[in-house]
TrEMBL record, chain A:
Organism (species): Brachybacterium halotolerans
Region (Disordered): 1-20
Main location: membrane
Family recorded in the similarity comment: Belongs to the binding-protein-dependent transport system permease family.
Listed PANTHER family: D,D-DIPEPTIDE TRANSPORT SYSTEM PERMEASE PROTEIN DDPC-RELATED, OLIGOPEPTIDE TRANSPORT SYSTEM PERMEASE PROTEIN APPC
CDD domains: TM_PBP2
Membrane topology qualifier: Multi-pass membrane protein
Transmembrane residue ranges: 40-62, 99-125, 132-155, 161-180, 211-233, 269-292
UniProt keyword Transferase present: no
Name of the protein described by the UniProt record: ABC transporter permease
Domain (ABC transmembrane type-1) ranges: 101-289
UniProtKB/TrEMBL annotation, chain B:
UniProt similarity note: Belongs to the binding-protein-dependent transport system permease family.
Name of this chain's protein: ABC transporter permease
Phylogenetic classification of the source organism: Bacteria, Bacillati, Actinomycetota, Actinomycetes, Micrococcales
Membrane topology: Multi-pass membrane protein
Ranges where the ABC transmembrane type-1 domain occurs: 101-313
Keywords attached to this entry: Membrane, Transmembrane, Transmembrane helix, Transport
Localization, UniProt: Cell membrane; Membrane
PANTHER family linked to this entry: OLIGOPEPTIDE TRANSPORT SYSTEM PERMEASE PROTEIN
Gene3D superfamilies xref list: MetI-like
UniProtKB/TrEMBL annotation, chain C:
Name the UniProt record assigns to this protein: ABC transporter ATP-binding protein
Record field: transmembrane: none
Gene Ontology terms, MF aspect: ATP binding
PANTHER family reported for this sequence: ABC TRANSPORTER, ATP-BINDING PROTEIN (PTHR43776:SF8), TRANSPORT ATP-BINDING PROTEIN (PTHR43776)
Amino acid sequence: MSENTTRASSPSPVGHRPHPAVEALRGGLRAIWGNRKARIGMILLALFILVALLAPLLAPYAPKDNSFDRNLGASAQHWLGTTAAGEDVLSQLIHGARISVIVGFGAGSISTLIAVLIGLTWGYITGFAADVVNFVVNLFLVIPGLPLMIVIATYLQNGGISVIIAVIAITGWAWGARVLRSQTSTLRNRDFVQSAKFSGERAPRIIFREILPNMTSIIAGGFFGSATAAILAEAGLEFLGLGDSSIVSWGTMLYWAQNSNALLTGQWALLFAPGLCIALLATSLTLINFGVDGISNPRLREGSTGR
Amino acid sequence: MRYALRKVGLFALTLWAAVTLNFLLPRMMPGSPADAAIARLSQNGPVTDETRAAVEAQLGVPDGNILQQYLAYLDQVIHLDFGISYAFYPEPVSGLVATALPYTIVLVGTVTVIAFILGTLLGVLAAWRRGTWLDALPTVGGSFMNTFPYFWTSLLLLFFLGYVAHLFPTFGAYSATAVPGISWDFFVDILYHAALPAVTLLITSLGGWIIGMRNAMINTLGEDYVTFAEANGIGGRTVALRYAARNAILPNLTGFGLALGGVVGGSILVEQVFGYPGIGFLLFNAVIGQDYPLMQALFLMITVSVLVANLLVDILYGVLDPRTRR
Amino acid sequence: MTSNHPAQQAGPSGAGPSDVGPPEADPSDVEEILSLQDVSVVYEPVGAAPTHAVRGVSAQIARGEFVGLVGESGSGKSTLGFAITGLATAPARIEKGRILFRGRDIASMDQDSLRSQRQGGFAMVLQSGMNALNPVRTIRKHFHDIFAAHRHVPRARREERAAELVGKVSLGPEVLDLYPDQLSGGMRQRVTIALALSLEPQLMVFDEPTTALDVMVQHAVMDTIRDLQASEGFTAILISHDLGIVLESAQRVLVMHDGEIVEDAASADILHRPRHEYTRMLLSHYADPRAEVVTLPGLEDRAVLRSDDPSDASAENPASSSPEPADPSAEPPDPSAARSAPAAPAAPPAPAASSDGASSRRAPVSRLRSGGTELRLQGVSKVYPAARRSGRAVRAVDDVSFTLEPGGATALVGQSGSGKSTIAKLITGIERPSEGTVHLGDTSVGDLGRSGLRDLRRTVQMVFQDPYAALNPLNTVEYTLARAVMNLTDVRRDGARRRVRELLETVGLTPVEQFTGKLPHQLSGGQRQRVVIARALACDPQVIIADEPVSMLDVSLRAGVLSLLRDLRESIGVSLLYITHDLLSARLITDRILVLHDGKVVESGPTARVMRAPQDDYTISLLDAIPNPRRVLTP
């Protein structure tokens, strides 16, 4: 903090030095890292991202190379065996990480963005407009997500991964919006918001420059939450055959596994591995959220017994 | 009373919005679902004008009068007349839904109530014994299980307990040889078939309740009324249950709607894997057969069921929180 | 250990042992109920440096005593209170020392024996009594939970006993059927006292029992506590930041500062012969607003009796009318001196020593305005429509008229709910009046549109109550000020930077370079409030509305902020509307006063005259509710 003081004489009145919010973010990352569960989550997540990035280098074969014998069990050449179409399961598994990571981050980001835009605006406005938004958000909350996704995805047959991302994002923002809204309406009654009004700030700037940076941890929590949900939803849609079944993802692997009766051929690795990867990736995000929760709510910090 | 009336009013409004959304969805989609449906229908035989009109009321025609369609659609919904299924031609959609609905409601309903109670108790225990293995195990275990994809858990249980160990049936809601009726044997058979789907749903949904309740209770444990109760020497069990948990359960109930929607969604995947003849399995078949009328009707029924469950939870909330009674 | 006897511990025993100690018994015979021996409490939050909140505290409390424990925020007084009642839980830990309650060490007791000690032992009334009751249980069930836990009241007697207990705190048995949210704040605090009393404790610790309450409710609750202590005979420890309240009730006072007890003496000695510098400093910030001459360190008397015209500079006559030195380090100032010895020889007041660390050097501002804008309220009322639940329209402000002259200073005094904050909202255009008009010069504030309101910010600015909340924790001081400058004036870039520096100098935050890059959490409360004031000054407003600007600050920091507000008015010529419940500060910095009650102005006039000769019953009861140790402790 001391460099802050010494650099205070820098010529800019608004400040080009690292913004306090950036420093708060850095502090936040440190705090998350300090949480044991979150640390495991971050390592796990980094591992998955690395695998996704380096998939072509790591995978022993091309994911769609179907020149092998079909329905092979585990062997030295094929650690996890081959599929009913004669593809290497391990290579598919490694490449499948890409789809899940992309969908998780893509749909997670988009629905978080929608949640932020709607949640913050909604928390700031009052009166009839707020009631209307409240109703719409509640509607999106109570309508079961997966059935809605299934219906939309069925109408948009074979739209590819971007359609899946869009569908998940559209159906998945409501919870985040509600959480952000309640936090915003708490903050909007804080004096610093009134104070900004008296400084002549306009509403959009108050919402996104004054209020938003104070909710970083909640937004991060929302992001990891919706990324988790997105990964699971994508896998579910792929499994039902509603995605693009020609791509290699963990969901399609299980789709083909079930369709080719892997249950009967006894290839448990083919059933076991993709699902475990989905679960582990989702778990890594959930674990990170234990640390994020601790920032938003000091009572949830590890080690503080609260009593 | 005012609270209950407001909730019922909100329910009615939400119901209307859901029904309308169901009307708008196919009309907002690119292409013409109605034309596709009629084309699909014509594979089963000649399409009468009457049928065509019914399909168009349901799925929309590009140039039609939207208001007239809407009124016709509302008329259909009120009479629970959703037309003829294509996938199960010539069964009427409403009959198919009526057959499947009880399976899902009983399965999801029972599992949700059990998961809520069990998860809440474990969450209370975890928060009360914070920092011990009673906290770590349910919390980490629960959040891990919570990330299991429903269909994966189903596949594993089906594979190991069904195909490998032959402990449980692998398909359907009752044995092919069973005689449906009100008899003890049939009841046991039904339970036997429902066991694996139920366990799957339970495993996957339990973690959410544990963590939700744990976090809520950790919050209430920090409240002044808990400190004051301890300062007054009130026993640990009373403080934990009647002070901390009793208040922590309220925000958890509010999350019920979201969770319920999730479990219903999960049940679709579970039913598909186990071939369990509920709403989810039917929806899956409707999707595969591009049976739009059936799909629309199922989506509506699922939404309405979740709405009704939410209304019940809201009323329960009103009973549990004295502040809503005024 | 023997040297810790109360009589010896009580500081000025050499000075005057005859008036020390509990009046009812000779100190040497008194049985000790509580003995603190070298108690240290440390906070050990995970991932942060441990804080030693209580450091080696020793004290003895005799049976039947009423002891005050006084200190400012962060002094460790509440931490000590929690340790005494066996409620210190992680991250707080009793590091060392013994807390002997009737000879048994609480610090080393396990939870079960601690629990059994609570009945007939020690009880605690929490700071925020508002939240100390379980919202889903009726008051009756709260009592029954305690009876069930200790089984000290036979089942058949429980109902009767509960009614009896609420009766002791002046509540009727009908409250037993109610839920906590159906009770007012004062009633809730009474219920928590009755609950603590139901344990039949020998020792009761009251941790800031009245802090969240209005002055008059505060007064009534304190009366109840005093009466109960007398009738039930328990030993009482009253923890408070307010020396006035403590002196009025307690026989003996422990003054706590930075985790240590710096003074332990009988109340009369604390008041008349304080020995520790810190105690003297605390005392110097108390005065009776009704006195002829009122002075705080750094705040000379306004001597407004002669000056209804505030622009008359000669009205400031610090030297001639100040009866006592304002320098806290000199002879102990006595708040009563103003009244009891008005003719005492005058000493020149010491320069304002702002105790929050900010330099008191003021920028040479000499932009005294000749013709400012007048603020005029005429027959203003504000009615809020019936809320969804209560179903009754609320008349928050009822037919209020007053004029704030350019450069004038008017106080708006009242309790919460009196409508004073609503008036601020009406003047700043946040709300529109239901009847009447608010005029600023020729502008009718109620008729302004969105852009008109933005323009209004250049003329009317606001200083907020809570400096901890009024600054965005993520924005530097420079950013906060520069945004106000750039939004409200045409000054840009270098000009804006210069203006920010000028503002910091004006509010005494120098050297400026040390403050521009700071974040709010790096500043003390007083410094923060100075930043808030600087922000309000960014555009040279004509009217400043200060809404309880010092109520969240420790007493020692208040005078500095108050004197800044007053100086600004005189040096810049801005007019000040000072909203407060605190009559003393109103007396010190305003010329005129309006007393509000239930939305109506019940009394108005020159501040000094209203305080010295109040006409309205409500004003009189407000004045009477101010803690006044003199009443009980006149030597």
